[in-house]
């Protein structure tokens, strides 16, 4: 299943994409409970069954997924004629599937082909940093080149982007052995790690500046949806493609990961408690010939057959 967060009537809703339609799970659940199950208080029951927040939906676990499948079957049986609960995908305003992930953990230097290009030593453990929630945007929302303020190092003229296959945590865990890692995974999405490279190079290698150059609003596109783990049989054999203005800039594959997903999850869970809705990336493939993002550019970050995250680039007004 492909789960999305979308905006409808000024509110954020959890939906599922089926045949180029977005089904509002809560709205369709109300119809299903009322029409089929004859529940007397369908609104209250629906909110417990399929929460309207993605983090809460993920945390609800297997019962919520089972309910979502029943709702999809119901909507398909109604030939998608469920008023107020089914919308054409092209007319829906998608947001980041998890608008405010509890934790955003970005892994670095984890593609062997990229490590060799950069000439870095092979890391002994996964390298990571944690992003701010306020950097998150969704599909088709603009990456903003910051004009800054009066302080030095708050404006940039050189943005680089990295596209990273991303794991969504499904349930809470600590000290998770890698053999059980997939029990804690909900699904997969795409994350773009944007860096103000000129700010990064003010003092290369200093952690303070590494954090600052990635902390600007809009520097973390995520989406457009989360694909559940059952639909990705081998997350270590996914073709990765990056495009700019329709032209392929570079390609790679998750088969080149140094630390595999279960190893990353095990390592992170030895440091921090992982919670439903947390995301961690698997790092960026080789970036190819790097040219700074320009106003008017449109980038596409693709995990073939899974997600295609598209974002325009604009100057801050």
Topology:
Layout (H helix, E strand, L loop, with lengths): L1 E7 L2 E8 L2 E4 H11 L6 H8 L4 H6 L2 H16 L8 E3 L4 E3 L8 E5 L3 H7 L8 E5 L4 E2 L5 E3 L13 E11 L15 E12 H4 L6 H6 L7 E9 L10 E6 L2 E7 L7 H11 L7 E3 L16 E6 L3 E9 L2
Parallel strand pairs: 6-15, 8-12, 9-17
Antiparallel strand pairs: 1-2, 1-5, 1-12, 2-3, 3-4, 6-7, 10-11, 10-15, 11-12, 13-14, 13-16, 16-17
Defining traits:
317 residues; alpha+beta; SH3 type barrels; Fumarylacetoacetate hydrolase, domain 2; 12-stranded mixed β-sheet; 22% helix; globular
CATH superfamily of the largest domain: Fumarylacetoacetase-like, C-terminal domain
The tally of helices reads 8
Please tell me the total number of domains: 2
CATH class of the largest domain: Alpha Beta
Low-confidence stretches: none
Q: Work out the number of β strands.
A: 17
Percent of residues in beta strands: 25-35%
Order of helices and strands: EEEHHHHEEEHEEEEEHHEEEHEEE
Structural class: alpha+beta
Per the principal axes of the C-alpha atoms, what is the gross shape? globular
Overall mean confidence score, pLDDT: 95
> C-alpha Rg, in Å?
20 Å
CATH fold-level assignment of the largest domain: Fumarylacetoacetate hydrolase, domain 2
What's the end-to-end separation, in Å?
38 Å
- Relative helix content: 10-25%
Tell me about the largest β-sheet: 12 strands, mixed
The CATH architecture designation of the largest domain is: Alpha-Beta Complex
């Amino acid at each position: 299943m492909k789960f999305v967060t979308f905006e409808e009537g000024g509110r954020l809703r959890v939906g599922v994409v089926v045949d180029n339609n977005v089904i509002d799970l809560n709205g369709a659940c109300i119809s299903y409970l009322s029409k089929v199950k004859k529940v007397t208080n369908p609104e209250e029951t629906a909110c417990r069954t399929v929460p309207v927040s993605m983090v809460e939906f993920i945390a609800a676990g297997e019962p919520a997924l089972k309910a979502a499948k029943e709702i999809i079957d119901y909507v398909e049986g109604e030939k998608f004629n469920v008023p107020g609960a089914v919308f054409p995908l092209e007319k829906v305003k998608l947001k980041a599937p998890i608008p405010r992930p509890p934790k955003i953990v970005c892994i670095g230097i984890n593609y062997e082909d990229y490590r060799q290009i950069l000439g870095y030593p092979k890391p002994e453990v996964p390298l990571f940093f944690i992003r701010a929630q306020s950097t998150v945007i969704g599909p088709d929302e603009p990456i903003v080149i910051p004009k800054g303020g009066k302080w030095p190092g708050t404006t940039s003229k050189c943005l680089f982007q990295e596209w990273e296959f991303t794991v969504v945590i499904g349930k809470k865990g600590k000290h998770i052995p890698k053999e059980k890692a997939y029990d804690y995974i909900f699904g997969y999405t795409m994350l773009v790690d944007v860096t103000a490279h000129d700010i990064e190079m003010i003092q290369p290698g200093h952690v303070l500046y590494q954090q600052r150059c990635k902390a600007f609003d809009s520097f973390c596109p995520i989406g457009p949806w989360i694909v559940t783990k059952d639909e990705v049989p081998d997350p270590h054999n996914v073709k990765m493609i990056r495009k700019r203005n329709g032209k392929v800039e570079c390609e790679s594959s998750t088969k080149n990961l140094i630390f595999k997903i279960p190893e990353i999850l095990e390592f992170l869970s030895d440091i921090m408690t992982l919670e439903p809705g947390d995301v961690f990336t698997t790092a960026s493939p080789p970036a190819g010939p790097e040219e700074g993002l320009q106003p008017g550019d449109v980038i596409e970050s693709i995990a073939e057959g899974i997600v295609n995250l598209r974002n325009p680039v604009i100057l801050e007004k």
